[in-house]
Amino acid sequence: MTLAKADWIEGMARGMAVLESFDTERQRLNATLAAERAGIPRAAARRHLLTLAHLGYLETDGRHFWLSPKVLRFSGSYLASARLPRALQPTLNRLAAQTGDAYSAALLDEDEVVIVARSGPTRVLAYGVHLGARLPAHATSTGRVLLAALPKTQLTAWLRDRPLARFTAHTTVDARAFRTLIDQVRTQDYCEADQVHELGIHALAVPLRDARGRTVAALNAVVGTARAQEGALRREVLPLLLEAARELRPLL
């Protein structure tokens, strides 16, 4: 959304930037690291860290800060009130019970996808796909499906000056090759990602569209190498995902 300059609250924006500077790579930050990650002066970062700790969103030993359980209030409220996860969960549960594989649904958030619903075993995934997990969009089946749904001008803007990190030898990191890959996903209307984020993990995703035809999320299945070698993804799982997407469309 567009925002008038008079409505912009710089302090709130900086505070959120500090809060978002905590992630799986950096769980504990001091003022210097928080300032670097948030892109603000160290003195400002220190004040925001202390304020967030005072409000209970951070814990501290006096030097380093880390997230407290209170931050889960936001995710819990979203999952309890948002229509999309509640609409998807019964279908994910049914698919997981039917095949024994892991299923999840994700939304695009800048250069990552966020898991908003999931069901099935977690043992197949070394990195873990839990609610709220954030994964690189370019190296996941769901991310590629969601990027394929963008207008080409938006995809160009997304790719501009954005490094594509390599996670395995199968990760596409060249921008031109990645654009070709996304064009293929757009044409076939599904994406199979073969060990692009983690070795031994194979995933397949389809778009979830609402009644107006807009892609609102991506639905995927994840299997291990044994199941993939059996041809289960395209032969068995893809028809299930496509049928689930058709069934869900009136609910989205």
Major beta sheet, strand line-up: 5-4-3-8-7-6
Helix content: 40-55%
Q: What is the CATH topology classification name of the largest domain? A: Beta-Lactamase
Q: Unreliable runs, pLDDT <50, ≥5 residues?
A: none
Overall CATH architecture of the largest domain: 2-Layer Sandwich
Calculate the mean pLDDT score and round it. Answer: 91
For the record, the count of structural domains works out to 2
Give me the number of helical elements: 10
Describe the largest sheet. Answer: 6 strands, antiparallel
What is the H/E string? HHHEEHHEEEHHHEEEHH
Cα distance, first to last residue?
22 Å
What's the Cα radius of gyration?
20 Å
Task: Using the alpha-carbon principal axes, give the shape.
Answer: globular
CATH hierarchy, class of the largest domain: Alpha Beta
Secondary-structure-based class equals alpha+beta
Beta-strand level of the residues, as a percent range?
15-25%
* DSSP strand tally: 8
CATH superfamily of the largest domain: GAF domain
Describe the structure.
- The protein has 252 residues and is of the alpha+beta class.
- The chain folds into 2 domains: 5-71, Winged helix-like DNA-binding domain superfamily/Winged helix DNA-binding domain (Arc Repressor Mutant, subunit A, Orthogonal Bundle); 82-251, 2-Layer Sandwich (Beta-Lactamase).
- 44% of the residues lie in helices and 19% in strands.
- The strands form 2 sheets. A 6-stranded antiparallel β-sheet has the order 5-4-3-8-7-6, sandwiched between helices. The chain has a two-stranded antiparallel ribbon with strand order 1-2.
- It starts with 9 loop residues before the first helix and ends with a helix.
